[in-house]
């Protein structure tokens, strides 16, 4: 049996914030002092550098971490294809691009699946081979990953939005417990294992092929607000001593799955220091900022994380939430106006404190896709109510927890989501916007 060591009673802690340099030791005096790469690391460990960016990326964007581990990750057998059941659609399936607005009813829970087998591609754009674009998944699982199995993606960073259940995530750099209303980011290449301490789980994931997530700039907001760096949590070092068991490592590479086998645990990192690590964030810690005079502010004011493109101010992906907040504007239509956007909007809901079964809109575990320049906005009931309501202060976002993946790219929809999931609501546009009435009155 593997021997597991924890240095800290909690599997994670608040450190200096997202994007900062961190270090952690499960055994004191493991990390070198003064020398970056000693001839003989402490305790007979191996030094391994994990680079999430090119070596020559400017210092402000350079992400790498030094690992001090019992055996290097290069010690393994050949990669071979990892076969999924024929009933599980491949993530490399064809994408269908359409300007149609789409509503997906809640996706089913698959209690027979594990973290590796329970992901379904819903939408995406780009190519991991060229490190461009992204993919969006719905995931569900009812079983732990098998003993001595781990997973990583060479395709991109994975942003996980948990909708139901609890994830116990063991990573090379330490453990993270993820609960609903929390998000987890696992950077490209970091190996991890997922178990389910409270039973089945379901949620959403965005795999970013291009760049990395970062906190948005605050501009005139100043030094604090939105997602504060101090509220992100990173793991502390925890290692396993297991040099005699066969481990299986599943790798996602160019949207396909491969498997390698090795005779040692991938979770044998005794200490680490650097800028490249998994992290989690509790969405309840978001510090909302909005208008207190008039007008509906663009939803970019609720951006938690962004992945910038090469075009200034334009994102490959934004992660946006609609947090609890006071709405107090005067002489203003408070919901979002009808709009057409150069960004594609994939919206979903984590939870709602009231019954949505009588409505024809978005529900927890479902999703909408409003693609580039396709018009959308409130339905007729919402429009009529918001146009005539008394404009008094109202607390919004407390009963419904919603989020959005936004991208400057046109998003295609997978074969499974469009044709086989049986979750596309064919009457969406007819029920949502066709009941809108003409109110125009020509002046006399």
What would your notes on this structure say?
The chain is mainly beta and 444 residues long. The protein has 2 domains: 3-84 and 109-279, Jelly Rolls (Sandwich); 284-432, Jelly Rolls, CATH 2.60.120.10. 5% of the residues lie in helices and 37% in strands. It contains 3 helices and 31 strands. The protein has helices at residues 380-388, 415-420, 428-432, and strands spanning 3-6, 12-14, 22-25, 46-51, 64-69, 80-81, 95-96, 102-104, 119-127, 132-141, 149-153, 157-164, 167-171, 174-178, 182-186, 192-195, 201-208, 233-235, 238-241, 247-253, 256-262, 269-274, 279-282, 303-308, 315-322, 325-327, 344-352, 367-370, 394-396, 400-407, 412-414. The strands form 8 sheets. Strands 7-31-9-10-17-12-15-23 form an 8-stranded antiparallel sheet. The protein has a 6-stranded antiparallel sheet with strand order 8-28-27-30-25-24, with no helix packed on it. A hairpin with a 2-residue loop joins strand 13 (167-171) and strand 14 (174-178). The longest helix has 9 residues, at 380-388. It is globular and about 90 Å long. The model is unreliable at 6-10 (pLDDT under 50).
